[in-house]
User: Which sequence fits this backbone?
């Protein structure tokens, strides 16, 4: 059920989760997915890309990631919160982005809500990690089919984000964001990253 490939320059085969198939997604899985993140810009990036993915394959979003970084001022939520209609129209003409008006408008409205949370809690990180008791939830899945698409924590976080004005933050999207930023470790037990992401950085 897992991918058996060579990792980096090492000639030793490693076991990893079965979902990454391309070089791009394998690199993302091996370096980033599930690593606990406490940097607000990176957390804003996860929300932007999570919303962009809605209804689409994650591979598509990964390929457009650098374009989103450039369009969103290196994922600076304060700068994005100040985008006006002209900037959104420019983004809609950018072939490097997913040109869905509602999704792109949500990037700006979510940035505004994000900044409000930063002011209220001191950082978005402080707000976000409360939903998992300030530490990652470590799961012990044997196979990928066991991994849920949502959880009580993602339901609660989704509800709170929506009440604060966020868009494209349904429970499934939010759970994917939680997986990405390491709030939950959903690597399968036989994946070499299951233990690695738990090592403090």
Assistant:
């Amino acid at each position: 059920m897992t991918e058996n490939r060579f990792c980096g320059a090492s000639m030793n085969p490693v076991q990893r989760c079965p979902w990454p198939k391309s070089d791009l997604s394998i690199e993302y899985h091996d370096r980033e997915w599930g690593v606990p993140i406490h940097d607000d810009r990176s957390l804003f990036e996860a929300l932007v890309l999570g919303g962009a993915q809605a209804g689409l394959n994650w591979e598509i979003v990964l390929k457009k990631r650098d374009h989103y970084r450039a369009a969103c001022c290196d994922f600076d939520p304060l700068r994005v919160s100040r985008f006006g209609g002209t900037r959104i129209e420019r983004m809609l003409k950018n072939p490097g982005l997913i040109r869905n008006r509602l999704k792109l408008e949500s990037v700006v409205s979510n940035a505004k809500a994000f900044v409000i949370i930063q002011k209220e809690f001191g950082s978005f990180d402080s707000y976000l990690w409360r939903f998992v008791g300030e530490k990652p939830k470590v799961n012990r899945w044997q196979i990928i089919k066991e991994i849920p698409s949502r959880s009580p924590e993602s339901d609660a976080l989704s509800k709170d984000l929506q009440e604060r004005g966020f868009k494209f933050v349904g429970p499934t999207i939010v759970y994917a964001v939680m997986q990405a930023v390491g709030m939950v470790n959903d690597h399968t037990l036989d994946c070499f990253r299951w233990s690695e992401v738990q090592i403090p950085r």
